[in-house]
Amino acid sequence: MKTAVLFCPSQVWGGIEKNVHLRAKLLGEDGVSVVVILLEGFFAERFADLPNVRVIEVASRGGDFNIFVVANYVKILREIAPDVVFAALKKDWWLVSLASKIAGVDRVVLYLGIARRVKSPIKYFVIFRLMKSVLMVNSDSLKYAMLKHSRFFDESNVYRVYNGFDAPPAETKPLDFKAMFNLPNDAVLVGCAGRFSPQKGFDLLPDVLAKLPEHVHVVHAGEGEFEETIKAAIQSRPESERIHFLGYHQDMPAFFGGIDIFLLCSRNEGMANVLNEAMSHGVPVVSTRVPGSEELLAHGEYGMLVDIDDVPAMAKAIRSIAEGERSFAPEKLERWIVDKFGLEKMMRETNRVFFPADRS
């Protein structure tokens, strides 16, 4: 039986963490023995019922160098002797690569979901050229961006694997937001989802609504460390009466079933999971021109793209969909996601990266 160790010691449950959960689940179902490394007290219960998956909780993830964290990681990896180690978060690349090298793990896969500056060239050189870790990214645009750093990357150590999504359940009961928030029958519901962070652009929502009719409302699902600050700024505006917060919501199919349009107003993203999810439910989307979104929407064929921070363009795009000037057939959106971003394709490509010796 193959063994994979997935490092995801995070205090926030977002797109990357969900993707680790999905990969752990599907690898386990495929007969791989999976060990997930989590921070103590964070999210272990979400992995509890997955087949062939067990969790090891660690007290600390360390920083650039923490000898105690490295020693603990080495001990864990020597006991497990995995075929592959996967680090989902950039903050863990260095210590996970170092510990894996000391423990004698040959295959180390590091994940990057969003473009980052190369702040420490020496560290990148050591990780990717000397330690021979490989990079997994979630879009072609991100792959090409990383390949520009030819001192560290080439076609042999950068792999693009699209995030995969399954078709939504056939029987999904949509959330009735109009009843939940006592909204008028003609209300247009614009959904947003994601952690509260300046990167996500949720501070722009009052400005967007100020340019739209009174019957347009926003429903947001998510939480995060900047929640208090961003909510306080939003609630100081009169448009806040039309912005409704759900907090963390587990049943996202019900969320997507209850909205009319999905808005991604991010300032920086990789391949945004929530866009894939919205489209898999046939929901029309408006997205800022972040690299992964342009690729996902085929540069406007499957949704409306606007410039980052362009509030008038966001409002105009929402209005054009709400008033029927632009339409996107639900079945066309669903087919695009299933064909291009299906789970089977994601796992086939993941296995090729994780277990290269199995390639035919």
UniProtKB/TrEMBL annotation:
GO molecular function: glycosyltransferase activity
Domain Glycosyltransferase subfamily 4-like N-terminal, chain residue ranges per copy: 27-110
UniProt entry tagged with the keyword rRNA-binding: no
Keywords: Glycosyltransferase, Transferase
Domain of life: Bacteria
Gene3D superfamilies recorded: Glycogen Phosphorylase B (3.40.50.2000)
Membrane-spanning residues: none
Protein's name according to its UniProt entry: Glycosyltransferase
